[in-house]
Design goal:
Structural class: alpha/beta
Number of domains: 2
CATH topology of the largest domain: Rossmann fold
CATH architecture of the largest domain: 3-Layer(aba) Sandwich
CATH class of the largest domain: Alpha Beta
Largest sheet: 9 strands, mixed
Strand content: 15-25%
Strand order of the largest sheet: 7-6-5-8-4-1-2-3-9
Order of helices and strands: EHEHEHEHEEEEEEHEHEHEEH
Number of strands: 14
Bound molecules: flavin-adenine dinucleotide
Length: 342
């Protein structure tokens, strides 16, 4: 019988599991129920009893590695914690959120245990044989993988499973002892991104895409870049949206044209950019060309605001297209949601 371990970690408070961790818990419980396997949840946190409360109602065995050294993401302590949890659970299948924290250590832990790892898993299927799905070639080809090798580590992409939402109850977490490695890395503080605003928010309900139109000459013959920046940042703040961009807009910086200072290539959506997973998307001042729209593959409801009634969005790529001036639409929208400019 398979023994499934779901590795989870706390957020910056040290005492609450991250949303991506709770998604992995749902995936583990669902898989265990389907294949008839045992399931444990391994918790890496400062306070694993507090963090475990959110998953105590799952019925899974709870194992924890606690203490201050596990409050910060750090290769040596995180790898030691995950290795100890895998050994304690005698796991044959290890599921973990594809967070930056676990993505950094999972391959090393798998190697220490003589296992195999696959990353960017989006779905788990199969009964007799576990089948893990992932996309290749910029989300064009979906592969279904199965392996005989154990332990098999599977890093799950966030947004592919519902977060576990059981009632919080006091948790009985078994403490797993860890031989602390030599700690050479200490965290002396946090530095915010240079632009002062974190615009990429994978957990946001809405993806807001800014296209090159925001920096182009408008009907009055002038560009209005500072106003565009105010409207976009005001909306992001008010709606808690994540900011995406077209390639044309982010490329402008390197081409010496007017540019929105908070955008980088990390914001780019599309064939040569990111393929995020948000339930909703709103494109503004963007033409909706195919290389851009392929990055919207996993966006549920799609809306666009464009001056061009013949843009790509109107050709079946958006559910609703508002043929309108995005400067006016976004000013009105910001007023409605009570947001002010930057
Ligand atoms: C190999 C390759 C890979 C590529 N990869 C990517 C990729 O990963 N991502 C990507 O985005 N692109 C990619 N591209 C580029 C892509 O083909 C388009 O050139 C790009 O997406 C266009 O960006 P845009 O729509 O913002 O700009 P534009 O085409 O300039 O469109 C601007 C739009 O804004 C509208 N507009 C202007 N003012 C307003 C206003 N006030 N209100 C409302 N609308 C307004 C205009 O009508 C126009 O439709 C790739 C291209 C190639 C060849």
């Amino acid at each position: 019988m398979e023994s499934i371990l779901v590795l989870t970690h706390a957020d910056e408070t040290g005492a609450a599991l991250t949303k991506a961790s709770l998604e992995a818990v749902s995936a583990g419980i669902e898989l265990a129920g389907r294949i008839g396997a045992s399931v444990s949840i391994g918790i890496v946190a400062v306070d694993a009893q507090a963090a475990g409360a959110a998953v105590a109602s799952s019925g899974a065995r709870l194992l924890g590695v606690f203490g201050e050294p596990f409050g910060q993401a750090r290769y040596s302590t995180d790898a030691a914690a995950c290795e100890a949890l895998c050994r304690a659970a005698q796991a044959t299948i290890v599921l973990a959120p594809g967070s930056s924290r676990f993505t950094r250590v999972a391959a090393g832990v798998s190697h220490r245990l003589g296992g195999f790892i696959d990353t960017h898993i989006t779905a788990l299927g199969g009964t007799a044989n576990i089948e893990a799905s992932r996309w290749f070639y910029r989300q064009r080809i979906e592969a279904v993988l199965s392996r005989d090798a154990r332990p098999w580590f599977l890093l799950l992409d966030s947004g592919t499973h519902a977060a576990f939402a059981g009632e919080a109850t006091p948790a009985q977490v078994e403490q797993v002892a860890v031989q602390l490695p030599l700690i050479r890395t200490t965290v002396s503080g946090l530095r915010a991104p240079t632009q002062g605003a974190q615009t990429i928010r994978p957990d946001a309900k809405l993806l807001f895409v800014a296209g090159a139109g925001w920096t182009k000459k408008q009907p009055d013959g002038q560009t209005h870049v500072p106003e565009a920046a105010d409207l976009i940042l005001g909306f992001l703040r008010g709606a808690g949206a994540s900011l995406g961009s077209s390639k044309s807009l982010v490329d402008q910086g390197s081409e010496g044209q007017s540019v929105l200072p908070f955008l980088t290539h990390l914001n780019q959506i599309g064939q040569t950019g990111a393929t995020p997973r948000h339930p909703k998307g709103l494109a503004t001042c963007c033409h909706g060309e195919e290389p851009h729209v392929v990055g919207w593959r996993f966006i549920g409801e799609r809306r666009a605001v464009s001056l061009d009634a013949n843009c790509g969005w109107t050709r079946g790529k958006a559910d609703v297209v508002y043929v309108a001036d995005a400067f006016q639409v976004m000013a009105k929208l910001n007023a409605l949601i009570g947001s002010v400019g930057a």
